[in-house]
Amino acid sequence: MKFFKRFKKSELINYSFIFLIILVIIFFDPIIRTINPELYEKNANKYVQRTIKTENKENGEQSINSSTSVSTFSPHFSNEPIISAYPTRVEEYNLKMGGWIPSFDFNNSYQKALSSTELNSVSVVYLSLNSSGNLTNRITLTTEQIQKLKESGKEIFLTSTLFSPDVWSTFANSPNLIKIHNQNLLDEVIKLDADGIDLDYESIPLQYKNIYLELIKDLSIKFKEKNKKISIVFLPKSSDKENIGCCNETKQSQEIKSIEPYVDEIRIMLYDYHKYVGKEGLSPISWIKSVTGYFSNQIQNKQKLVICLPKYGYSFGPNNDIKALTNDQIKQIISQNPGLKVEITSENESSFMLNQQRYYYINDENIEVIKRYLKEQNIQKIYVWRI
Fold first, then answer.
1. Cβ atoms within 10 A of the Cβ of 206, count?
2. Residue 149's closest CA among 182, 181, 109?
3. Residues 256-277: what's their mean pLDDT?
4. Range from 1-15, 56-70, 158-172 carrying the lowest mean pLDDT
5. Residue 362 DSSP symbol
6. Which pTM was predicted?
7. Under 8 Å between Cβ of 159 and 100
8. Positive or negative CA dihedral for 317, 323, 327, 331?
9. Cis omega (within 30 of 0) for bond into 386
10. What are residue 313's DSSP bridge partners?
11. What is the pLDDT of residues 171-200, one digit of tens each?
């Protein structure tokens, strides 16, 4: 009691109030974490970002690595810079990750897929649909190769592609051909013991929208009977009747609300911005947000939504000279040009200028920024072109 007599009554009240606040914080902190973890994480991330920005300023860090300088470059959209917070791996966000094995580089990508510990889904570009409605094999594929991928803990899809609109009139004139096509797809999946089919049909005239939907409905019946999965590749769009860039009839033919009940995955291609929007770039973050927001609002079961990202780049030169490059090719260009200024644009695209050509590409650091956004949107899975 002598100890407390040293203080005035008003001081004791103030100290008691402070002590009470401390107890409230200690008591309610774990409750806040449990009730609203996203709010807690959001506030924690703000602190981490401020801390990293302060540390970078003190240490003079302005680069991804010792040989590549980074600055903010804004060729399009917002001038707000992307803040790259602490490094984050896909496991921390509980995001599943998959990727395509292209037919033109099968052996190399297949070995990468086998050894990958991040991938839990692989799609092998295996079949192609021609204008007469027949399926052809793009590569030679064996059950043993599929089994090795499955033994490494991966779900395996066979991808069937279509880039010509002519087949739809054939299907319209011969409805039974759709059933034959779907049965052939199922037979290939069963023969190779794959988990499902991945339809990458990118050319659908609007007048055959209903034929496309009938194909998917019949496919769903056949595949469910055999406990096999269906994935559909969707072209990117930000509205129901988007009319910019290319392939607008296909965009409108792919009506998500009609298709979703019959498929297991809806994969949205979020690359080739110059093609689908008609402006320079590869995968600007504002476009990713716009398209993801549209599909998130349209879909009933968000767990079906898969966001597909690029692991390659483009160069844009005079006279609309556009060339595709792998990330390995881009790394080689950078290594052969010491002092080349590589930038991360305000749209989260890696970029540099060389010989009157502007290069854009998406690397692992860019993808980490996208992952953080997708986690905020409760997206469950990403896919990359290509492994």
1. 12
2. 109
3. 98
4. 56-70
5. -
6. 0.78
7. yes
8. negative
9. yes
10. 325, 361
11. 999 999 999 999 999 999 999 999 999 999
Contacts 24+ apart (CB under 8 A), 296-305: 296/377, 296/379, 298/256, 298/257, 299/256, 299/260, 299/266, 300/257, 300/260, 301/260, 302/378, 302/379, 302/380, 303/380, 304/260, 304/263, 304/264, 304/265, 304/266, 305/266, 305/268, 305/379, 305/380, 305/381
| Total length of the chain | 387
CB atoms within 10 A of CB 37: 11
Please spell the DSSP secondary structure of 245-285, one letter per residue: SS-HHHHHH--HHHHGGG-SEEEEE---HHHHTSSS-S--H
Mutual angle of helices 175-192 and 209-225, in 10-degree steps: 40
pLDDT the model gives residue 94: 74
pLDDT bin (cut points 50, 70, 90) of residue 323 is very high
Question: Rounded to whole angstroms, how far apart are CA atoms 169 and 190?
Answer: 28
Alpha helices for 70-208 (secondary structure H): 106-115, 143-151, 167-173, 175-192
Q: How far apart are CA 81 and CA 77, in angstroms?
A: 11
Spatial distance between the Cα atoms of 279 and 324, rounded to a whole number of angstroms: 16
Task: Show Cβ contacts of residue 183 under 8 Å, excluding neighbours closer than 6 positions.
Answer: 222
Give the β-pairing of 121-129 and 155-162. parallel
Q: Is a pLDDT exceeding 60 seen at residue 235? A: yes
Contact 386, 312 (CB under 8 A): yes
